[in-house]
Amino acid sequence: MTGPLSGPKLAGEVSNPLRTQDESNETWTRVAHTDAAGNPDAGGCAANRLPRIDQLEALYNANSGGKINGIQGWPVYLNYWSSTYQSATTWKLIALANGSEFANSNVSIYASCLASDNPVPAAITIEPVDPSLWYDGSDVHAVKVKKGDTLQLKVTVKDASGNPVPEAPFVLTRGDGYDRRGEKYTAQDGDDLQGIVTPVVIDGDRWPGPPLKWGRRPALTAPALLVLPARTPTAPHRD
């Protein structure tokens, strides 16, 4: 966790709250996600201070069973926003009363804020799970597998200091494939008569052939495991 967390703002601390909730003899501010993730004036957090879902999970584990209400006086009747994507248009939220997790986008609930900024993602690394698959030769640094094999890649998002950033959203682009003659080969999912293009599996989800982008549309969070079935050699894609 990056520093301590503060509880939701009281209605009296916000000039014009979207909604309020009476609980524990107090009136609390309720916020939409757009305000939770960067609008302190509406009762949300400053930029980069809305906690990730893993940080809220750690908070719950330290105060399980709704103890944060009895000990810290935080409200627990409504769920709490996180900054972690669940899908392209939804974010994860947690119930500090019992630890249950959900996803939503258009509700007004509670927001807890970090005392200091979460690290900002600065770089993405993609590397094979098996380092022995790296190939260096003829000015080429790439992963090499045989046709028919399955390649597992690990995606890690890092901050400016090189430290991994958990639950960080990223966009992955898969480009067009090229056959052994260097000619571009494009196929839609289910329309690959030559069996060249094969879906990528990302954390258990199947994604069809190129060109496609993954990330916030739909959302991926790091670290993620990619499984690439090897077909004919393909050239790497560069944006």
From TrEMBL:
Annotated ranges, domain Bacterial Immunoglobulin-like: 148-192
Organism: Salmonella enterica I
Region (Disordered): 1-27
Coiled-coil regions listed: none
Family annotation (InterPro entries): BIg21 (IPR008542), Ig-like_fold (IPR013783), InvE_AD (IPR008541)
The protein's name in its UniProt record: Outer membrane protein RatA
Domain (InvasinE Adhesion): residue spans on this chain: 8-114
